[in-house]
Design brief:
Elements (H helix, E strand, L loop, with lengths): L5 H21 L3 H12 L13 H4 L25 H135 L1
Length: about 220
């Protein structure tokens, strides 16, 4: 295979210089220059980088001048040639390499879809975590509601007890008043009975004294 001609090398160098000069022209401020430098210097492991400068080195060697034919009916013997066995062998190699590169491309397509699916999986997982968080919040609200409900029920029970206690105490007070009233009446009756007995005794005593005086006067 032929090497690159001087003209091709000069053309590649000219393109590289134009690109380099264009990059310098766009970096007008120190900040832009620093950012561009950082981007150029940044390297990710496993990331294949292609620039116009590296394209010529990736191309197979080809010199069109070597295949110049003036008379199609009388091709020159100096043009590059390959034997039939060389052609068959080379074509088999190229066909195998083409199949290999296509399989590699298919694996990269699959890998891309895998990364896309991983991203979707992560988003779905994050959504699940958020849903679980919201569910726990609701569960906490329900527990707060049930706790408050129990507290309210306990207050209701306490109110009912207090109301019954008020009724009972009121009834006890009424009965106590009635009992005191009855005791007062009994005391009054007893006092009246004692007063009457006292009067009766006093009358008997006066009668006795009168009789005694009469008896003494008769004597």
């Amino acid at each position: 295979m032929a090497k690159l001609t001087n003209a091709q090398k000069a053309a590649s160098k000219e393109v590289a210089e134009k690109i380099a000069n264009g990059s310098k022209a766009t970096t007008t401020t120190p900040l832009a220059t620093s950012t561009t430098t950082n981007l150029q210097d940044a390297k990710l492991p496993g990331l294949l980088t292609i620039t116009p400068e590296t394209v010529p080195g990736m191309m197979p060697k080809f010199n069109p001048e070597l295949y110049k034919i003036d008379d199609p009916l009388n091709p020159p013997e100096s043009i590059p040639q390959a034997t039939q066995s060389q052609f068959d062998k080379g074509m088999k190699i190229y066909e195998g390499a083409t199949r290999a590169i296509k399989l590699t491309g298919a694996s990269l397509d699959l890998t891309r879809e895998k990364f896309v699916t991983i991203g979707k999986h992560s988003k779905a997982f994050g959504a699940g975590v958020q849903a679980a968080t919201e569910a726990e919040k609701v569960r906490g609200n329900v527990l707060d509601y049930l706790s408050q409900k129990e507290t309210t029920s306990q207050k209701g029970i306490g109110l009912d007890v207090n109301q019954n206690a008020t009724i009972v105490n009121g009834n006890v007070a009424v009965l106590t008043k009635q009992d005191l009233g009855e005791k007062l009446k009994q005391a009054e009756i007893k006092s009246e009975e004692l007063r009457l007995k006292t009067l009766e005794s006093q009358g008997n005593l006066n009668s006795f004294k009168a009789q005694l005086c009469e008896y003494l006067e008769v004597k």
